[in-house]
Prior knowledge:
Elements: H1 3-12, E1 20-23, E2 42-45, E3 49-52, E4 75-81, H2 84-92, E5 98-101, E6 105-107, E7 112-113, H3 128-134, E8 137-141, E9 153-154, E10 169-171, E11 175-180, E12 183-190, H4 195-200, E13 207-215
Parallel strand pairs: 1-2, 1-5, 5-8, 6-9, 8-10, 12-13
Antiparallel strand pairs: 2-3, 3-4, 6-7, 10-11, 11-12
Organism: Effusibacillus consociatus
Keywords: Transferase
Pfam families: CoA_trans
Amino acid sequence: MDTRHYIAWRAAQELEDGDIVNLGIGVPVLVADYIPENRQVFLQSENGILGVGPTPPPDKSDPDLINASKLPISELVGASYFDSALSFAMMRGGHVDKTVIGALQVSETGDIANWAVPGKDVLGVGGAMDLIVGAKTVIVATTHLTPDGKPKLVPSCTYPLTAKGEVDILVTEYAVFRFQDSKMILVEMVDELSLDQLHEITPARFELSKNFYAVSRPEVYSSPIKVT
């Protein structure tokens, strides 16, 4: 289990019984494998399915059963299928309780950029704008830094925006933040990291929650903390 799986596991803890949830591309698709057993969560995929289950083993996958990331999925009892028009109507009409989505950058006021890097090929925004604006709660699940060590949590986004001020919860391998009144609030941090180290890799300004606490990351998810 690597860092990405830890982020997905932690993001899954934010889902509640009865939620209709859309999972974005990248780390968020892993959330399907970590939903607590005692919670009934209905996963929706924008390519037209409600009732997505965990990732099937290779010998049980069906090439006709995929999510929006084109990855194999299983289906739960009672799963339903529909066209993209109805899927986007669900998203735009406020019928999705939560979306778990990745990010290239998140600002300290809850802005998010997750679809284009200047100077690189752009495939298009897809359903990201619809999901972020339409979902009742937006959960960002992303690594704290880029692969080359650059911060993703910044004072203001420098990449093309997907939406302004829409992020509610931000989960990384090191911390969990919540956004309230355009403020970024630290509520949880892994105990293998100090606050000084967290500030060092987080240019975005954040406040400490009154209920802030440190947690021990399960050993299976532990990875070296790379702070320069």
